[in-house]
Amino acid sequence: MDERLPSWRASNAKSAILDFVDRVTRKRGPDFVPPEDRIATFDNDGTLWCERPLQPQFYFAKQRLEAFGHADPALQARYPFKAFFDHDIDKIKELGKQGVLEVVVAVHAGVTADKFDAIAGKWLREATNPKLGKRFVDLVYKPQLELLDLLRDNEFRCFIVSGGGMDVIRGFSEEAYGIPRENVIGSSGKTTLEERYGRFEIVKQAQLGSFDDREVKPQNIYLHIGRRPILAFGNSDGDLAMLRYTLTGGGPALGLLLHHDDAEREFAYDREFILSPLADALDNADNYGLTLVSMKDDWEVVFPG
Amino acid sequence: MDERLPSWRASNAKSAILDFVDRVTRKRGPDFVPPEDRIATFDNDGTLWCERPLQPQFYFAKQRLEAFGHADPALQARYPFKAFFDHDIDKIKELGKQGVLEVVVAVHAGVTADKFDAIAGKWLREATNPKLGKRFVDLVYKPQLELLDLLRDNEFRCFIVSGGGMDVIRGFSEEAYGIPRENVIGSSGKTTLEERYGRFEIVKQAQLGSFDDREVKPQNIYLHIGRRPILAFGNSDGDLAMLRYTLTGGGPALGLLLHHDDAEREFAYDREFILSPLADALDNADNYGLTLVSMKDDWEVVFPG
Asked: Which CDD domains does UniProt cross-reference here (chains A, B) (predicted)?
């Protein structure tokens, strides 16, 4: 019996992964891919860690706004900040991922990168998912940790490509996933370089630099990695472009889409809109060559511990 | 006798490097730096390969313009393109690095990333330095290849941070320096994602995205790596900000500046202007904690073979 990926149940999805890894690493085989080209990219929210009831960055924005609102009460009366102070979840959801990122970026203008690291690190050590009652950093998916290990054992280089704020993810990616900071691509704000007290500092600015979502993901993969991935894993509207970019490269490729259909152990949700990239992906998986992964059926275990 | 860095002469510069590597890797020593923080950044033009009589990207721009000018004669009459067709070196130099990059970016609008890779690869295999009569890719500095190896042997991760076009450097960085494509940071143009004949393609646009020079180098280091380097190596106006960013991090750090003072084996040149970052670096090396490397005195060999 194959002992690899123990938290994955024997299924089509697991076979597709193991078969792919075997094919691209078999020397003199027809699908051999040299190690330098073995690039794997993973979405983060909902692919490597839990993103419900809201993506963790929503809670980060909320906590940061509360800290700033205390210092500047005028902020509390101004939209979009007001939505957070009013705990108006519908209004917050309306902002969308980009709107929430813009809030995070706006309230950190003038903060140095080193200081932001400390802020994000503290939040990550403490912040808890309100529904599941565990820390966000403990709600990473065990089957994915095994997949990352399997890929690295086979000389893949694994990257995160997330719509979430890059700097926050870098604060836990090494410890949680074994993915070094430089292998994290994500949304980012603009910066400047300033000399403060004899020290050169990266200083955050109020403007969003890159919202790393949808068609921007392949563009940022090109900017940061300079190679088309041969394996990509996503779960949402934001990931279809990355998956199809990976699958249309012309060589061997694997595109995986995690389907959140497990109301028991996690959450059950998928297409929020009839016309959306995720609906497109689910409806046309075969056409696009996508491999669907069912959390309910394909994963023996969801979370570690 | 220390057998490391054989192409480096016994000198202050060599001792500074070996001493630094020993200190940061000595477990339980006061200057120990854990492997995850061992980031080294190198400028490319004039630091890892020869940049005289003109930086190789000037010749790349010239060759590409000639190819495009043939297809579109109207281009030949228009400045700044005209300067290249007239072989007007003074006018070309006036454009500066950024101007030349803008020309390269402009003429490749609409070209896919994969096609550009092929174009750059062909040029790199053939293009020759007109003064030294060797291919540009053979005019890399042997002492630097040894230094990159030494650092990697000591669990450093080495990056290029160049004002030159990122995509061109990625075409030879793995073969020439052992630096993977994703560890190359440089100037870059804007892109779009387009579906062409069922294939998702990154397509180059006419606008410069990032001119990776001077104070932008630390900003791009933050964007791409997310850590402050502990070793940086440069040679020109474009590198002082990166060197000082490295040296003011608060922990152990080494900042190296290559001085081109070897008219015999390479070229002798330094400050072109009295007021310039390079003049500042040379005049204030001690203040800034910079280690000067003399090509003439500190290198036993310059080029391989």
From this structure: HAD_like
